[in-house]
Amino acid sequence: MPTTAPAAYALGEVTASDSTLRRFLHGLPGVDAVGLEARAASLGTRSIKTTAKAYAIDLAISMVDLTTLEGADTPGKVRALGAKAVRPDPTDRTSPSTAAVCVYPDMVASAKEAVAGSSVKVASVATAFPAGRAALAVKLADVRDAVAAGADEIDMVIDRGAFLAGHYMKVYDEIVAVKEASGAARLKVIFETGELSTYDNIRRASWLGMLAGADFIKTSTGKVAVNATPANTLLMLEAVRDFRAQTGIQVGVKPAGGIRTSKDAIKFLVIVNETAGEDWLDNHWFRFGASSLLNDLLMQRQKLATGRYSGPDYVTVD
């Protein structure tokens, strides 16, 4: 499915004004919803053999952003989650670590303590997550607090109200400001695809986020009814693929919310490989925003190794 930006535009010029940005985003090819969903469904039926499945499970574990974003989060819970991220299966040292632990800004220090000395990153949601309903100054203070506490990555939410009202430059400027406030931390831009209503809007949001400097584009907060789906993730992977083809800049993708089983995760990895290619099959460029997914991956990994399915008591309840 072609997603390339209109050739008449030089990407460096499209953000010169609200009108040029609007013309650019609305000039992107429309999405064939039936074709998109059929393609995503067909990729989900690919058969994965045992050896490839073992590789895919370890790869998926290494791509998990192990997440807790609850009002009842405590430093103790976050430290336990961090320990699990570093060593997901204490009985098997060959299990890879997860990519990151994702927490609220006030829990960053506890998470950093828990993962110290490991490869696990600490990601922090910010910008008045999950609704994003706050003044820009408040959102930037949220980001700076997380970075000051040691966050390696910032997961921001866009202003969906502004986007849906067509105020694209406002959304663009906010992402640029958050990117600056993030400093050396990598920035993941969350669209909340379940609130954007159409695939065309998801495509526009993807290009808008990348133009503004996103290091990752992310489907969802996990706090609404519709989160990551194979179709919306496929659409975003097409966007990052085509953005790199035009600019040479690679951007990551993070589906989040609703991915709970190894079978689901492997379907997404097939979509990554067949859409964006092998360059994205690495946790620097693809992540799963999840909490319960890791447990199923560990149980399936143990079953492949021993031939026995241990059940839920084999893993910790987070």
Commentary on this structure:
This protein is of the alpha/beta class and 318 residues long. 46% of the residues lie in helices and 10% in strands. Strands 7-6-5-4-3-2-1-8 form an eight-stranded parallel beta sheet. β5 (186-190), α9 (199-211) and β6 form a beta-alpha-beta unit. The longest helix is centred in the C-terminal third of the chain and has 18 residues, at 230-247.
Topology readout:
Blueprint: H1 18-26, H2 33-43, H3 50-62, E1 64-67, H4 75-86, E2 100-103, H5 108-115, E3 121-125, H6 136-148, E4 153-157, H7 160-164, H8 168-182, E5 186-190, H9 199-211, E6 216-218, H10 230-247, E7 252-254, H11 262-275, E8 288-290, H12 293-306
Parallel strand pairs: 1-2, 1-8, 2-3, 3-4, 4-5, 5-6, 6-7
Helix pairs in contact: 2-10, 3-11, 3-12, 4-5, 6-8, 9-10, 10-11
Portion of residues in beta strands equals 5-15%
Describe the largest sheet: 8 strands, parallel
Number of helices: 12
Helix content: 40-55%
Major beta sheet, strand line-up = 7-6-5-4-3-2-1-8
Mean pLDDT: 93
CA-based gyration radius: 19 Å
Pattern of helices and strands: HHHEHEHEHEHHEHEHEHEH
Which segments are poorly predicted (pLDDT under 50) over 5 or more consecutive residues? none
- Count of DSSP strands: 8
Class by SSE composition: alpha/beta
Task: Identify the overall geometry.
Answer: globular
Distance between the termini: 40 Å
